Amino acid sequence: MLRVVVCDDEQLLREALTKIIDAAADLSVVGVAANGQEAVTAVDQHAPDVVLMDIRMPVLDGIEATRRVSSRTRVLILTTYDLDSYVYAALQAGASGFLLKDAPSERLRDGIRIVAAGQAVLAPEATARMITAFRPAMPTDEDQALLRAIQGLSPRERQVGELIAAGLANDEIAERLTISRYTVKVHVSNILGKLGVPDRVHVVLAWSRLRGHV
């Protein structure tokens, strides 16, 4: 049973999310929070596997709350199209991915399972917007090592990295490149190792920062 904390400042949404999650036999909402501070407290009290985190909330926003709890639990951001800048900051703070608030119920439940398993979830509909919005003019000094690592990927790994950055899942990448899903998983693992990043969310972040330079 995967333990979930739901954090959103809208009561109706908290209740709806709780019903959606509890409808699955393998998921259970163990706590709810109306702001980031309550989310931090709920993580302390319930030790959940995943926190569903809104971003714009009173008292303590979801970005700071994510920063405080991401070392102890996985955080899945729920957002809308107009929150791209906040999503980017939340991912940098340690979130494991994001979904749109209007995502189908099963996608939400699957997202929780994927994040709990140590993987990352990205909403394909918003990934391209995030990359476009946060493409810097030039890489910073801090980005140079990452840029060299990307340039050191094999041609096939570069292809896979580009498709990850575009928001494609492993099955979609396999179909696009006409290779097996296992081969995609190997390439993804190699990319994470060479870039020194923990999951595919950070591959998207790398490509978004360095787009135009890789």
From TrEMBL:
All residue ranges annotated as the HTH luxR-type domain in the record: 146-211
Q: Please list the residues that carry the modification 4-aspartylphosphate.
A: 54
Q: Which Gene Ontology molecular-function terms are recorded?
A: DNA binding
Does Transcription show up as a keyword for this record?
yes
Domain Response regulatory intervals: 3-116
Pfam families membership: GerE, Response_reg
One GO biological-process annotation of the entry reads:
phosphorelay signal transduction system
Domain of life the protein comes from: Bacteria
Spans traversing the lipid bilayer: none
Instruction: Look up keyword Transmembrane and say if it applies.
Output: no
- Which keywords accompany this UniProt record? DNA-binding, Phosphoprotein, Transcription, Transcription regulation
What name has this protein been given in UniProt? Answer: RNA polymerase sigma factor, sigma-70 family
